[in-house]
Design a protein that fits this description.
Number of strands: 0
Largest sheet: none
Bound molecules: zinc ion
Helix content: 40-55%
Number of helices: 14
Distance between the termini: 35 Å
Number of domains: 1
Strand content: under 5%
Length: 330
């Protein structure tokens, strides 16, 4: 990413550390809660006889790969948060824009939150540990105010390497990322209706196609990507097997890994956060990483961080008897 000097954050009186979850639970961010609920309420409309189509499932899965896997997994998570790989500038921007179109917050907000999670995993200070309650770790934390993320010094502490990036700052200030998300909704919807009028003879058929496209490629896809991302924070910190003895409750969850194209191998990820590949065994499929390998072959990705598990974590797993059902590796 950009190497523009990081601005010195304005000194702010740092509050005494306190239990993050109980304090944060007091105040909900109404507008974000309303936005999440509103988008959810549109989902059942996609299952009416007029709107349900089997190609909608395909649109959902392709949309998940573009906006979820390339935008969130690769862009927000592996590239911005962990510097797991480098790409040409135009691809970096593209991954970030795909992430923005998943409506999961500004890149700076997302990266800041996730780095806080890695620093305090399942301890006091973790923004979304599901240890106390599954729903908190899954989605309640999102629409709950966390005063830490409203202070500039928090961003100065957790995302100093990204604060110099003008594009990321622009997206963050005044929640302009939401305008970009809205613009993509308008553009995708226009594309659907345009295709409808181009390929169908009657206005009724064209409008029906446009509505179907809007619901499946935008609404259902957005909600789907939300929940599978949130499952990494909730389910993959509660259920699954552990290959490494990390200081948290992270798990390798096969179900979440399949849905997210690789992010569910979460215990592997906590053991070696910078590694671009989150599947450590041959059967731990990570399609997001496979995509990076393909880009690497055509010189569109480089500095791909290798899997390097600290010795004490790898050996700690053997001593405690923790490990996957099969450790066979070709
Ligand atoms: Zn985690
Ligand atoms: Zn991470």
């Amino acid at each position: 990413m950009s190497s523009v000097p990081v601005p010195t954050p304005t000194p702010v009186k740092v509050a005494k550390p306190q239990a993050a979850i109980p304090a944060a639970r007091k105040r909900k961010v109404f507008w974000f809660f309303a936005a999440i609920v509103s988008v959810h309420l549109l989902v059942p409309l996609a299952f009416l006889p007029y709107t349900f189509v089997w190609w909608g499932i395909a649109a959902l899965l392709v949309g998940n790969f573009i906006f979820g896997s390339l935008g969130i997994n690769l862009g927000y998570h592996r590239m911005l948060t962990h510097s797991a790989a480098k790409f040409p500038k135009f691809l970096e921007r593209l991954w970030v824009l795909f992430g923005v179109c998943s409506m999961e917050g500004s890149p700076l907000w997302w990266v800041c939150t996730h780095r806080m999670h890695h620093q305090h995993s399942d301890e006091e200070g973790d923004p979304h540990s599901p240890k106390e309650h599954f729903y908190w770790g899954h989605m309640e934390w999102i629409y709950t105010a966390d005063e830490r993320r409203q202070r500039l010094d928090t961003y100065g502490k957790y995302v100093p390497d990204l604060m110099g990036d003008k594009f990321l700052r622009w997206l963050h200030r005044g929640e302009k990322w939401l305008l970009v998300w809205l613009a993509h909704v308008v553009a995708l919807t226009a594309l659907g209706f345009g295709a409808g009028f181009a390929f169908f003879d009657t206005t009724d058929a064209a409008v029906q196609f446009g509505v179907q496209w809007f619901l499946w490629a935008v609404i259902v896809r957005t909600v789907y990507v939300w929940h599978i991302t949130w499952l990494v924070n909730s389910a993959a910190h509660r259920w699954g097997y552990r290959s490494y003895k990390t200081n948290d409750g992270s798990r390798n969850n096969v179900f979440v890994a399949v849905l997210t194209n690789g992010e569910g191998w979460h215990n592997n990820h906590h053991a070696t956060p910078r590694a671009c590949s989150q599947g450590h065994r041959w059967w731990e499929i990570d399609l997001t990483f496979t995509f990076v390998r393909a880009l690497q072959l055509v010189s569109l990705a480089w500095d791909v961080a290798a899997v390097k598990v600290p010795k004490h974590i790898a050996e700690g797993a053997k001593e405690s008897g923790e490990g996957p059902p099969s450790t066979a590796k070709p």
